[in-house]
Amino acid sequence: MPHIVTDNCQRCRFTECVDHCPVQCFHADDEQLYINPDVCVDCGACIPVCPVQAIYDVVDMPDDKEPWVAVNKERASTLPIIGAKQDPLPTAEARQAELGF
Ligand code: SF4
Ligand code: SF4
Questions:
Q1: b (16+ CB within 10 A) / e for 66-82
Q2: Residue-wise pLDDT tens digits, 56-92
Q3: What is the pTM of this model?
Q4: pLDDT in tens, 20-41
Q5: Residue 34: enclosing H or E segment and its boundaries?
Q6: What's the gap in Å between 51 CA and the centre of ligand 1?
Q7: If you measure from the C-alpha of residue 71 to the centroid of ligand 1, how many angstroms do you get, rounded to a whole number?
Q8: CA nearest neighbour of 85 among 40, 49, 57
């Protein structure tokens, strides 16, 4: 089962995950990242490096995150690949604090 990025990533985009992914499965819009489920090899390397716990293995995700499975698939199919770490969004620190991390 693939891994997914969820709403905790919104307004963060720390992109730590991208540098730890062995394949190019992260895609980005102006607000957050998404994982292409057809490319993800389920290594799990991205989960512990996300500072806001935005990434889940689908088998372990809370029920309320289920809609994000379809969102990741749909958004990843239309957005460009992000292949390297970038600067976080200017709102990242505030968002992290808001989430309690
Ligand atoms: S590390 Fe977490 S918050 Fe940062 S871009 Fe990846 S999923 Fe989003
Ligand atoms: S589980 Fe592995 S392959 Fe899938 S997005 Fe995370 S780091 Fe990349």
A1: eebbebbbebbeeeeeb
A2: 999 999 999 999 999 999 999 999 999 999 999 999 9
A3: 0.96
A4: 999 999 999 999 999 999 999 9
A5: strand 33-35
A6: 7
A7: 16
A8: 49
Burial of 30 per CB tally in 10 Å (0-12, 13-18, 19+): exposed
Show the ligand 2 pocket: residues with CB < 6 angstroms: 3, 20-23, 25, 35, 40-46
Question: How far, in Å, CA of 64 to CA of 70, rounded?
Answer: 13
Q: Going by C-beta distance under 8 Å and a sequence separation of 6 or more, which residues neighbour residue 71? A: 34
Ordered by where they begin, the domains of the chain are: 3-93 (3.30.70.20)
Cβ neighbours for 8, distance < 8 A, ≥ 6 positions apart = 50, 52, 53, 54, 99
The DSSP 8-state label assigned to residue 82 in this structure reads: -
CB-based contact 82:39 (threshold 8 Å)? no
Task: Please tell me the distance from the alpha carbon of residue 33 to that of residue 38, in angstroms, as a whole number.
Answer: 15
